[in-house]
Amino acid sequence: MSTKIYGVKGEDGRKLSRPLLRLAARKYGWGELPELEYSDRGKPLIPGEGRWLSLSHSGGYALCALSECPVGVDIELVKSHRPGLPAFCFAEEEMPLFDGTDGSFTRLWTLKESFCKLGDTPLYPPRKVPVPPPCPHKSYEGEGWWASVCCQDTPPETIEWVNLEDLVEVFTTP
Fold it and tell me: Are strands 160-161 and 4-9 parallel, antiparallel or unpaired?
């Protein structure tokens, strides 16, 4: 099975990310989610081989990427940024990829963050994180947000959005 991304929108993406992970594990075919382990940097890991995950949330959105190989996913709401922030975040050779808009900044930032999540590496200093990343990657756009995935296989064409009501069952089941 290849990389899949599941998403949900509600009031608080942070609170939705773990129930989304439980539902995504079932939908992906992994069944019930075992107790998670954590890397030294705090990245959640599924014990065993061949099961990789990445979580992200921003505002009311939560994303969960599952794969049989390392994966990183990030979602960010499009917000205004300080004028000097792009020069701090992007190397000189990356600046041509930035068109000056908040959406462009957010898209490039999610690529950097998803790449760092893929390898469980620091995002600081951001100018040292390559855009575009040297791995299979894809960006996704919605109303007021951008998301990106980096993986070691073919990125999915779309995000599979689940209904908030489907998570109610996950909240209430042991």
Answer: parallel
Q: Is 110 helix (H, G, I), strand (E, B) or coil?
A: helix
In terms of residues, how long is the chain? 174
Return d(Cα 137, Cα 78) in angstroms, integer.
20
In this structure, are residues 72 and 117 in contact, taking their beta carbons and an 8 Å threshold?
yes
- Sole residue written with tokens 């129930």: 19
Amino acid at 59: G
Long-range contact list for 109-113, CB < 8 A, 24+ apart?
A: 109/74, 109/76, 109/146, 110/74, 110/75, 110/76, 110/139, 110/146, 110/147, 110/148, 111/137, 111/139, 111/148, 111/150, 113/56, 113/72, 113/74, 113/76, 113/148
b/e sequence 36-69, b meaning 16+ C-beta within 10 Å: eeeeeeebeebeeeebbbbbbbbbbbbbbbbbbe
Residue 38 DSSP label: E
Mean pLDDT by 10 residues, the chain (174 residues): 93 94 93 89 87 96 96 97 93 94 97 96 93 95 97 96 82 54
What are the structure tokens assigned to 65, written together?
């990427």
